[in-house]
Amino acid sequence: MEYSNKTFVTEFILLAFPELHQILLFVAILFTYIVCIVGNMTIILLVTLEQSLHTPMYFFISIFSAEEILFASVPVPKLLAILMAGDNKISFIGCFLQVYSFITLGQVESICITIMAYDRHIAINKPLHYMAIMNQTFCIGLAILPWFIGLFNALLATLFTLFLDYCGPNEINHFFCDLGPLQNLACSDAYISSTMTTAAASLGAIVPFMIIVGMYTKIIATISKIKSSSGKHKAFSTCSSHLIVASLFFFVAFVIYLRRSGSKYDKFYTLIYFVVTPVFNPFIYALRNRDVKNVLKKHILTLYYRSLFAHK
Hints:
mainly alpha, 3% strand, globular, GPCR_Rhodpsn, transmembrane
C-alpha cells in the first residue's frame, strides 16, 4: 500500500540525436550498418566455404564476425526507427532486454578477443603442440564459453538495475537503453546497482584486457628470440590483425566507460563503439591477412567468370 501514490514508469523515451539532421544521420547509419553486415558476413562465408581457412584462428575470426553483427544489431534497428519515423518510445521490458543484450554481447566479444589472443599465444609459443591443443572439441568449447560467462554476468548487472524503482522522469538522453542513464532515472538508491555495473565492466573488459597484455608480452618475448628478420616478420604477421582489432575494441570501450560520464559527446562515442568499430574489423582482416585476401580474390574472380559466361 505504501506505493499507491507513486506512478511507475511503463515505457522510456529515447531522445537520441534531436539536434542533428535526422534523415542524413539515418542514411549514414543505415549505410554503415549495411557495410558492417556485408563485411562480416563475407568473412563468415569465406571461412565456411574455403577449406584452407578451416583452422582454429579463422574459426574464431568467423565467430567474432558473427558476434559483431549481433552487437551492432542491438541498438541500430531502434535508432533507425527513431530517426526515420520518430518512434522514440520503448517499453520497460524492451528497454531492459536491450540492456541485457548489449552487456551480454559486449562481454562475449571481449572474451572472444581474449580467446583469439590465446590461440595466437599457443601458435607462437607452442607451435609443435598447436593442433593437439587447439583441437576441434576444445575450440567449440572455447567458442561456447564466452556465452556462459556473458549471459550470467549480464544477468546480474541487469537485474540489480531492473529492480530499482522508476517513478519519475522517463526520458533517456541516449539512443539506446544503457545502465548508466537508467540508474540516473531511478528514484531509489542505485548504489548497489552501480557497484554491480562496475564489477561487470571489470570482469568483462579489464580482466580480459590484462590477460591479453600478459599473453602478448610472452608472444613478443618469443618473437624477439627469433634470429632472422623474415622469421620475426612471419611470426608477428599472424598476430598483427588481431592486435589491431583488440586495441581498437578496448580503446573505444575504455574511452566510453572508464571516464567521467555526462559529456555531450557520450552518445557519439557510443555510436562509434556500436556501429563504426564493427565495420573496420572485416577490412582489417581482409586487407592485412594474405590468406583472406587470396581467398577473397579467388571467389571474386570465380563469380566474375561465372557471370561472364552466363551472359554468353
